[in-house]
Amino acid sequence: MIHFDNIKEYNRFIGYNDPKKDLIDVVKYNDCKSIRLLCDGLTSDFYMMAFKRNMTDLSWFGNTEYDTTSAFLYFIKPKQIHNWNVDKRWEGYQILISPILLQEYNIDFSFFQYNIKEALFLTNDEQNRIENLYEQIFEEYQKDNYDMALLLAYCNLIFTYIGKCYKRQFETRQPLYNKLVTEFKKLLSDYYSNGQQGMPNVHYFSDKLHLSSNYFGDLIKFNTGKTPSEIIQDKIISEAKKHLEISNKTVAEIGYDLGFDYPTYFTRFFKKQTGITPTKYRENKASR
C-alpha cells in the first residue's frame, strides 16, 4: 500500500500536474497528459472531491443503484484506501485539500466522511451546476494572485450544493433506503435477544449494513426524522422498562444486562430520557 503525505507526490504518481500550493490543488483532468489507469491501492493525508463526467469507474461502486449514467461525484477521506482499474482516462475535475485548511476556514460537512461507494449520482441539471462551480474554482486557482479566501468560499458553495444533491438522492432512493431502515430496526430489535455484549452503537449497525457511519446516520435521519442514536436510545429505554416491569433483577443488574458499565450510568441515562429514575419507574408500575 502506497501512502502520500503531500499533494505533489500524489499528483506525480497519478499523472496530474504539480499543485500550486501545498495544502490545496484543483485539477482539470483534461489538462493532464497521462493519467494512471491502474492502481492496486493508495492512501493520502488529504480529502479528495472528484467530479467525473463519464461513467468509467462504476466497478468502484459494486452493486450500487445509479440515478444517472452521465456523471457522478465522490469523496475520499484521509487514510481511506483508493484503488482503480479503468480502460480509459476520466473527464471532469478534482479538488484535493488538507484537513488543516478546512479546519482553518471552519468548513465541515457530513459527507466528507462518506465512503467512496456512497457516491452522489448527478441528474443532468445537477451535473451542469456542479461542473460550472468546479470551473469557477479552477479558473480562480489558475490566477497567479488568486485569493485563498475566495477559493475556499467557492469550495464552501459547491459543498453546500452537494449537500442539497445528496438530500435529493436520499429522496429518489427512498424505496431502497426504507429497506435499510427496516433492516436497521430489525438488527436493533434482535440485538439484545441475540446475546450481544455492551451497549448498541451507531458504528455496529452501520458496519452490519456496510455503510459509513455518516452516510448511515444521514439516510436514517432523512427517512425517519430521528438520528440512529435517538432510535437506539429509544430501544434501550423500551428494553429497560420491560425488564423493570417483569424482572426481579435489581436496577444495577438490569443496567449491566443492557450494557452499562456502571449502575449510576444506567440510572442517569434512564432519568434523562424519561424524567424519573428506574427505581421510581418500577415503584410507579408496581403501585398500579
UniProtKB/TrEMBL annotation:
InterPro entries named among the record's database cross-references: Homeodomain-like_sf (IPR009057), HTH-like (IPR037923), HTH_AraC (IPR018060), Tscrpt_reg_AraC-type_HTH (IPR020449)
Gene3D superfamilies associated with the record: Homeodomain-like
Name by which UniProt lists this protein? Helix-turn-helix domain-containing protein
The organism that produces this protein has a lineage beginning with: Bacteria, Pseudomonadati, Bacteroidota, Flavobacteriia, Flavobacteriales
Pfam families recorded for this chain? HTH_18
- Provide the HTH araC/xylS-type domain boundaries: 185-284
Secretion signal: which residues? none
Alphabetized UniProt keyword annotations: DNA-binding, Transcription, Transcription regulation
